[in-house]
Design brief:
Elements: H1 2-29, E1 52-56, E2 62-67, E3 76-77, E4 80-81, E5 91-95, E6 101-111, E7 117-126, E8 132-141, E9 144-154, H2 159-170, H3 176-187, E10 188-189, E11 192-193, E12 195-203, E13 209-214, E14 220-226, E15 232-237, E16 243-247, E17 250-251
Helix pairs in contact: 2-3
Length: about 260
Amino acid sequence: MSNNIEHDLKLLKLYALFTTVVMAVLGLAAFTNGRGEVVGSHAKFDVVDAERVNIREPNGNLRLALTNGPRSQNPLYKGQPFLYTGRHRPGIIFFNDEGTENGGLLIIGQRDSLGRVNALGHLSLDQYNQDQVFVIQYAERNGKRRVGVQINDRHETSIYDWSAQRDSLNRLPDSPAKTEALRRLMAGSPDDPRVAERIYLGRDTAKTAVINLSDKLGKPRLRLSVDSLGTARVEFLDGQGRVTYSLPGGAAPGR
Protein backbone atom coordinates (compact mmCIF):
# COMPACT_ATOMS: atom_id res chain seq x y z
CA MET A 1 0.00 0.00 0.00
CA SER A 2 2.86 2.30 0.78
CA ASN A 3 4.13 1.79 -2.75
CA ASN A 4 0.79 2.94 -4.15
CA ILE A 5 0.87 6.06 -1.98
CA GLU A 6 4.38 6.90 -3.13
CA HIS A 7 3.32 6.35 -6.74
CA ASP A 8 0.29 8.64 -6.29
CA LEU A 9 2.43 11.35 -4.68
CA LYS A 10 4.84 11.28 -7.62
CA LEU A 11 1.93 11.66 -10.02
CA LEU A 12 0.57 14.62 -8.03
CA LYS A 13 3.97 16.32 -8.05
CA LEU A 14 4.32 15.82 -11.79
CA TYR A 15 0.79 17.15 -12.33
CA ALA A 16 1.50 20.21 -10.18
CA LEU A 17 4.72 20.91 -12.06
CA PHE A 18 3.00 20.48 -15.43
CA THR A 19 0.15 22.79 -14.40
CA THR A 20 2.58 25.46 -13.18
CA VAL A 21 4.54 25.40 -16.44
CA VAL A 22 1.36 25.58 -18.55
CA MET A 23 0.02 28.55 -16.55
CA ALA A 24 3.35 30.35 -16.84
CA VAL A 25 3.40 29.84 -20.62
CA LEU A 26 -0.19 31.01 -20.98
CA GLY A 27 0.51 34.04 -18.78
CA LEU A 28 3.56 34.97 -20.84
CA ALA A 29 1.66 34.46 -24.09
CA ALA A 30 -0.95 36.95 -22.93
CA PHE A 31 1.71 39.69 -22.97
CA THR A 32 3.76 38.65 -26.04
CA ASN A 33 3.23 38.24 -29.75
CA GLY A 34 4.70 34.76 -30.03
CA ARG A 35 8.17 36.05 -30.90
CA GLY A 36 9.11 36.90 -27.32
CA GLU A 37 8.27 40.59 -27.81
CA VAL A 38 5.95 42.36 -25.39
CA VAL A 39 2.82 43.66 -27.10
CA GLY A 40 0.36 46.34 -26.07
CA SER A 41 -1.07 46.04 -22.58
CA HIS A 42 -2.61 48.26 -19.97
CA ALA A 43 -1.49 48.43 -16.37
CA LYS A 44 -2.56 50.59 -13.43
CA PHE A 45 -0.34 51.52 -10.50
CA ASP A 46 -1.01 53.61 -7.42
CA VAL A 47 2.64 54.69 -7.03
CA VAL A 48 5.66 54.25 -9.29
CA ASP A 49 9.17 55.11 -8.07
CA ALA A 50 11.67 55.51 -10.90
CA GLU A 51 14.86 57.41 -11.68
CA ARG A 52 13.97 57.66 -15.37
CA VAL A 53 11.03 56.94 -17.70
CA ASN A 54 11.40 56.85 -21.50
CA ILE A 55 8.47 57.17 -23.92
CA ARG A 56 9.33 55.75 -27.35
CA GLU A 57 7.72 55.35 -30.76
CA PRO A 58 7.23 51.82 -32.16
CA ASN A 59 10.40 52.35 -34.23
CA GLY A 60 12.40 53.04 -31.04
CA ASN A 61 12.70 56.83 -31.44
CA LEU A 62 12.70 58.63 -28.10
CA ARG A 63 9.78 61.06 -27.74
CA LEU A 64 9.99 61.99 -24.05
CA ALA A 65 12.46 61.41 -21.23
CA LEU A 66 11.38 62.03 -17.62
CA THR A 67 14.51 61.89 -15.48
CA ASN A 68 16.22 62.81 -12.25
CA GLY A 69 19.52 64.73 -12.27
CA PRO A 70 22.09 61.93 -12.57
CA ARG A 71 20.12 60.23 -15.37
CA SER A 72 19.52 63.45 -17.33
CA GLN A 73 19.08 63.02 -21.08
CA ASN A 74 21.72 64.73 -23.22
CA PRO A 75 20.64 66.42 -26.49
CA LEU A 76 19.94 64.11 -29.45
CA TYR A 77 19.86 64.87 -33.18
CA LYS A 78 17.93 62.20 -35.07
CA GLY A 79 18.60 59.82 -32.19
CA GLN A 80 22.36 60.52 -31.97
CA PRO A 81 24.09 62.43 -29.13
CA PHE A 82 25.54 65.84 -30.03
CA LEU A 83 26.16 69.39 -28.76
CA TYR A 84 27.20 68.56 -25.17
CA THR A 85 27.15 65.86 -22.49
CA GLY A 86 27.05 65.70 -18.73
CA ARG A 87 24.56 68.50 -18.06
CA HIS A 88 22.32 68.38 -14.98
CA ARG A 89 18.84 68.55 -16.54
CA PRO A 90 16.26 66.98 -14.19
CA GLY A 91 12.75 67.18 -15.62
CA ILE A 92 11.19 66.35 -18.99
CA ILE A 93 12.94 66.55 -22.37
CA PHE A 94 10.82 66.37 -25.55
CA PHE A 95 11.83 64.95 -28.95
CA ASN A 96 10.20 65.35 -32.36
CA ASP A 97 9.16 62.68 -34.90
CA GLU A 98 12.76 62.35 -36.08
CA GLY A 99 14.22 61.80 -32.61
CA THR A 100 15.66 65.33 -32.29
CA GLU A 101 15.31 67.34 -29.08
CA ASN A 102 12.69 70.09 -29.39
CA GLY A 103 12.04 71.44 -25.90
CA GLY A 104 11.80 70.62 -22.25
CA LEU A 105 10.73 71.36 -18.71
CA LEU A 106 13.48 71.68 -16.06
CA ILE A 107 13.13 72.22 -12.31
CA ILE A 108 16.22 72.96 -10.19
CA GLY A 109 16.56 74.55 -6.76
CA GLN A 110 18.88 74.41 -3.76
CA ARG A 111 20.48 76.51 -1.03
CA ASP A 112 24.23 76.13 -0.49
CA SER A 113 26.16 76.02 2.79
CA LEU A 114 26.44 79.84 2.77
CA GLY A 115 22.69 80.29 2.40
CA ARG A 116 22.79 81.32 -1.26
CA VAL A 117 19.90 80.14 -3.45
CA ASN A 118 20.37 78.77 -6.95
CA ALA A 119 17.00 77.95 -8.55
CA LEU A 120 15.54 77.52 -12.01
CA GLY A 121 12.13 76.73 -13.45
CA HIS A 122 12.31 76.51 -17.25
CA LEU A 123 9.86 75.53 -19.98
CA SER A 124 11.01 75.92 -23.59
CA LEU A 125 10.05 74.93 -27.13
CA ASP A 126 12.69 74.67 -29.88
CA GLN A 127 12.63 75.73 -33.50
CA TYR A 128 12.91 72.75 -35.86
CA ASN A 129 16.56 71.63 -35.94
CA GLN A 130 17.46 74.63 -33.80
CA ASP A 131 17.24 75.83 -30.21
CA GLN A 132 14.80 77.65 -27.92
CA VAL A 133 12.35 80.11 -29.51
CA PHE A 134 9.68 80.18 -26.78
CA VAL A 135 10.75 80.26 -23.13
CA ILE A 136 8.98 80.66 -19.80
CA GLN A 137 11.59 80.93 -17.08
CA TYR A 138 12.14 81.75 -13.43
CA ALA A 139 15.80 82.09 -12.43
CA GLU A 140 17.27 83.07 -9.06
CA ARG A 141 20.90 83.30 -8.07
CA ASN A 142 22.48 85.00 -5.05
CA GLY A 143 19.38 87.05 -4.30
CA LYS A 144 18.84 88.19 -7.89
CA ARG A 145 15.53 87.01 -9.37
CA ARG A 146 14.20 87.21 -12.94
CA VAL A 147 10.84 85.86 -14.13
CA GLY A 148 9.44 86.18 -17.63
CA VAL A 149 8.36 85.02 -21.06
CA GLN A 150 10.80 85.24 -23.96
CA ILE A 151 10.23 84.86 -27.72
CA ASN A 152 13.33 84.50 -29.90
CA ASP A 153 14.32 84.41 -33.55
CA ARG A 154 16.90 81.80 -34.56
CA HIS A 155 18.96 81.59 -37.73
CA GLU A 156 18.18 78.80 -40.20
CA THR A 157 21.47 76.90 -39.88
CA SER A 158 20.91 73.44 -38.44
CA ILE A 159 22.09 73.28 -34.83
CA TYR A 160 23.75 69.96 -35.69
CA ASP A 161 25.85 71.60 -38.44
CA TRP A 162 26.57 74.55 -36.15
CA SER A 163 27.79 72.26 -33.35
CA ALA A 164 30.00 70.35 -35.83
CA GLN A 165 31.67 73.63 -36.83
CA ARG A 166 32.15 74.57 -33.17
CA ASP A 167 33.68 71.17 -32.34
CA SER A 168 36.01 71.42 -35.33
CA LEU A 169 37.22 74.85 -34.20
CA ASN A 170 37.67 73.67 -30.60
CA ARG A 171 40.07 70.98 -31.80
CA LEU A 172 42.42 73.58 -33.27
CA PRO A 173 45.43 74.86 -31.25
CA ASP A 174 44.67 78.00 -29.24
CA SER A 175 45.34 81.20 -31.16
CA PRO A 176 43.79 84.65 -31.73
CA ALA A 177 42.40 83.38 -35.06
CA LYS A 178 40.64 80.49 -33.30
CA THR A 179 39.21 82.82 -30.65
CA GLU A 180 37.86 85.18 -33.31
CA ALA A 181 36.39 82.34 -35.38
CA LEU A 182 34.58 80.99 -32.30
CA ARG A 183 33.29 84.46 -31.47
CA ARG A 184 31.85 84.89 -34.97
CA LEU A 185 30.31 81.43 -34.86
CA MET A 186 28.68 82.08 -31.50
CA ALA A 187 27.32 85.46 -32.65
CA GLY A 188 26.19 84.55 -36.16
CA SER A 189 26.30 86.99 -39.06
CA PRO A 190 25.64 90.73 -38.54
CA ASP A 191 22.37 90.50 -40.49
CA ASP A 192 21.34 87.11 -39.09
CA PRO A 193 22.40 86.62 -35.45
CA ARG A 194 22.45 83.13 -34.02
CA VAL A 195 19.71 84.18 -31.61
CA ALA A 196 17.75 87.43 -31.28
CA GLU A 197 15.34 88.06 -28.43
CA ARG A 198 12.32 89.71 -30.07
CA ILE A 199 9.88 89.94 -27.15
CA TYR A 200 10.46 89.85 -23.40
CA LEU A 201 7.69 90.23 -20.85
CA GLY A 202 8.55 89.86 -17.20
CA ARG A 203 10.12 91.10 -14.01
CA ASP A 204 13.85 91.86 -14.08
CA THR A 205 16.49 91.63 -11.31
CA ALA A 206 15.88 95.30 -10.37
CA LYS A 207 12.21 94.45 -9.57
CA THR A 208 10.99 96.32 -12.64
CA ALA A 209 8.04 95.00 -14.63
CA VAL A 210 9.05 95.35 -18.27
CA ILE A 211 7.99 94.63 -21.83
CA ASN A 212 10.74 94.84 -24.46
CA LEU A 213 10.00 94.73 -28.19
CA SER A 214 13.17 94.31 -30.26
CA ASP A 215 14.22 94.36 -33.91
CA LYS A 216 15.48 91.35 -35.90
CA LEU A 217 18.96 91.85 -34.46
CA GLY A 218 17.66 91.61 -30.90
CA LYS A 219 18.11 95.32 -30.14
CA PRO A 220 15.25 96.77 -28.00
CA ARG A 221 13.31 99.46 -29.89
CA LEU A 222 10.27 99.90 -27.62
CA ARG A 223 10.28 99.46 -23.84
CA LEU A 224 7.37 99.70 -21.43
CA SER A 225 8.29 99.59 -17.74
CA VAL A 226 7.05 100.12 -14.21
CA ASP A 227 9.88 100.23 -11.68
CA SER A 228 9.90 99.05 -8.05
CA LEU A 229 8.70 102.51 -6.87
CA GLY A 230 5.70 102.45 -9.21
CA THR A 231 7.04 104.87 -11.84
CA ALA A 232 5.71 104.02 -15.33
CA ARG A 233 7.66 104.81 -18.49
CA VAL A 234 7.48 104.25 -22.26
CA GLU A 235 10.72 104.55 -24.25
CA PHE A 236 11.51 104.43 -27.98
CA LEU A 237 15.11 103.50 -28.81
CA ASP A 238 17.32 103.57 -31.88
CA GLY A 239 19.55 100.75 -33.15
CA GLN A 240 22.37 101.84 -30.80
CA GLY A 241 20.17 101.65 -27.70
CA ARG A 242 19.73 105.42 -27.32
CA VAL A 243 16.32 106.69 -26.17
CA THR A 244 14.84 108.88 -28.91
CA TYR A 245 11.47 109.57 -27.31
CA SER A 246 9.90 108.78 -23.95
CA LEU A 247 6.70 109.19 -21.98
CA PRO A 248 6.75 111.03 -19.71
CA GLY A 249 9.54 113.25 -20.98
CA GLY A 250 8.99 113.73 -24.72
CA ALA A 251 11.80 113.77 -27.24
CA ALA A 252 15.35 113.12 -26.10
CA PRO A 253 17.73 116.13 -26.04
CA GLY A 254 18.96 117.08 -29.51
CA ARG A 255 16.06 115.37 -31.30
